[in-house]
Amino acid sequence: MLHPRIQEVTQRVIERSKNTRQDYLERISHAKKQTRVRAGLGCGNIAHVMAACSSDDKARLKSDEQPNLAIINSYNDMLSAHVPYKDYPDLIKDIATKFDATAQVAGGVPAMCDGVTQGRDGMELSLFSRDVIAMSTAISLSHDVFDGVFCLGVCDKIVPGLLIGALSFGHLPVFFLPAGPMQSGIPNKEKARIRQKFAQGLVSREDLLEAESASYHSAGTCTFYGTANSNQMLMEIMGLHLPGSSFINPYTELRDGLTGNAVETMLKQLTDDKESPCLADVISEKTIINGLVGLLSTGGSTNHAIHIVAIAKAAGIQVTWKDMSDLSEVVPLLTRIYPNGSADVNHFQAAGGMGFLMRELASAGYLHTDVKTMLGDGLAPYMTEPRLDKDDSLIMSNSTGPTKVKWVDCPANSHDEEVLRPVSNPFSKQGGLQLLTGNLGKAVIKVSAVAIEHQVVTAPAKVFSSQSALQDAYTRGELNQDFIAVLKEQGPKAKGMPELHKLTPVMATLQDEGFKVAIVTDGRMSGASGKVPAAIHLAPEAVEGGVIAKIREGDLVTLDAPNGILKVHVSDEELAKREAELSLPSATFGTGRELFTGFRNIVSSADLGASAFGLE
């Protein structure tokens, strides 16, 4: 039986989205009814499509009888998570050829790394890159010559951007192909310890670089549970990955086998079954709720409080932070993965992984199991895990992948209950995200990594307009006290909503020294949000008239996560008298920022998805 709260919130979302969802599905229905894409092309058009193809592929494209698959690739060789994608297009094309089909790299999308741009000007482009990726995806598919789509992306804004863009082509089947996490490096506790020591001036920059390099050391996704790995969880629980494929390391037989199997699966659907679940059917109201449940039950990235709103909107679905918060009241926290614990995603995978997690959630009524996935009807296949298969009798007759894969039942019990637990013994009876409201507006807080004794803070405000200003105050010895750091002018319209991860070592050090501290900001902290309570994504932001711009040094502020309260202890009358205090405008040029002036002018608030284009 479905949990009553899951049913209640789902029904609320369905009712709220009735008109916008219907409009979206009508557009998709119209696209489905059109003449098969390549049949409508003129001779000059099709000549351009196949000009650089082999003679065999030209013949296939001319006949217009077999599928032509689009590959949207985020490959670059600077960022570890995307390096493995270099070889994917050739693998996809080879398998397509064996099915007498074709595949083409339809386009590439940018993939920037928040880990590289932390604390730097480039971070002001990070959130906007999601919408650039969405538009790049749409441009890639606008040639309208494809029968299915493979999206190759992993990290923070790349996966949401690919999905938002692909939803404009929701009449097509769309599969996401993960690249997998790098092998585990230095223990996360040690990495965090050295970061704090560096913030205190107790270790050298060389020591810090050595620790960071031992953590981020090879091809693959970073192993902590930030936005990149939250993306992978989300794509799997929403049915856009093959079951159990999210956290298999790159350059392994199983990883290659899963990639090949995904290509085979789509081609078999398109050639043998003559039908494949289209993206618009997979991404439904129930699927979005499943994604939120996955996020809450794993203590996932707070960035998805923004991204899921935007993804849902692209499918005509309207979800709110209140929906997330109401779900969080009942969804149990089942994992402890850094920064919510000391383990990384490789430990999570070894403990039982996504199959165990989804089976536990479904068995307790927290997931809609009657949904479409890339495999067809229902979530049952996602409660299994993949294995290399040496028995040819278990392989479908037309399997042509580089390695054979089979799926087996996931473990009956977690192999490590310090990392992954059953619903009967959760780390917390509530999920990892909380909505905060009060006279400052509304914000979200990730509580899964915050100890109970730190979840309520009432202290004087110390007001800053940049991370560096706070760091300088710490260096001068001005922060050795209880306080709430109010970091304003960091929202979407002000600066593109940069992550403020540089605050973490300083604030964590002060908390460890016994001071009661917290953060309130209209910026982001992301999947790296850790043990310091942080009210983030505050809306309205400072430059839109948010009350955060009226907080003065020394004002008493309360952040009460358990009760969902965020307020400044100043009367309404006094706040009405105060003028907003805004610093001089930040630079709007350099590092490409001048190209995004239009985005900053039209971007929506964080609670509406922080999107630079409206999707109603």
Would you mind describing this structure in some detail?
Residues 418-610 form the Dihydroxy-acid/6-phosphogluconate dehydratase C-terminal domain. It is an enzyme of class 4 (lyase). One of its GO terms (cellular component) is cytosol. Its cofactor is [4Fe-4S] cluster. This protein has 616 residues and is an alpha/beta fold. The chain has three domains: 34-183 and 218-409, no CATH class; 184-217, no CATH class; 434-586, IlvD/EDD C-terminal domain-like (Glucose Oxidase, domain 1). The chain has 23 helices and 16 strands. It has helices at residues 4-16, 18-32, 43-50, 55-63, 88-98, 114-117, 126-141, 158-167, 188-199, 205-215, 227-237, 253-271, 279-282, 285-298, 304-314, 321-328, 345-351, 353-363, 467-475, 492-495, 503-512, 572-577, 597-602; strands at 68-73, 102-108, 148-152, 174-176, 372-373, 376-377, 384-388, 405-409, 433-438, 441-446, 456-464, 483-487, 517-521, 534-539, 556-560, 565-568. The strands form four sheets. It has an eight-stranded mixed β-sheet with strand order 9-10-14-13-12-11-15-16. It has a four-stranded parallel β-sheet with strand order 2-1-3-4, sandwiched between helices. A hairpin with a 4-residue loop joins strand 15 (556-560) and strand 16. The chain is globular, with a radius of gyration of 24 Å. Residues 392-402 have low confidence and may be disordered.
